[in-house]
Write a structure and sequence with these properties.
Elements: E1 16-20, E2 25-34, E3 41-50, E4 55-62, H1 68-76
């Protein structure tokens, strides 16, 4: 089944993570794999939404599945400075 344009790919629950933020909000990420140019590429798409409605998204791409920890760390490191 092809993913409709403009929608996220269907991924199994074990490839999704949702976490409450330590202070004010929630973050969600999922990871999947694609095959551009005949090579497997892993992709993580993460979003953080704060209680005031502000949000940020991050995308990480890497070549070896064992590097998922790096992608999760990069996503979790996104911070918002207080104004």
């Amino acid at each position: 089944m092809e993913t409709p344009a403009g929608s996220a790919p269907a991924v199994p629950p074990e490839q999704q993570i949702t976490e409450d933020m330590p202070v004010d909000g929630v973050r969600h990420a999922f990871w999947t794999a694609s095959v551009p140019d005949g090579r497997t590429q892993y992709e993580l798409y993460g979003f953080t939404v704060h209680d005031d409605g502000t949000a940020v998204g991050a995308a990480c791409m890497w070549n070896e599945l064992h590097q998922l920890a790096w992608a999760l760390h990069a996503w979790r490191s996104v911070r918002r400075d207080a104004e």
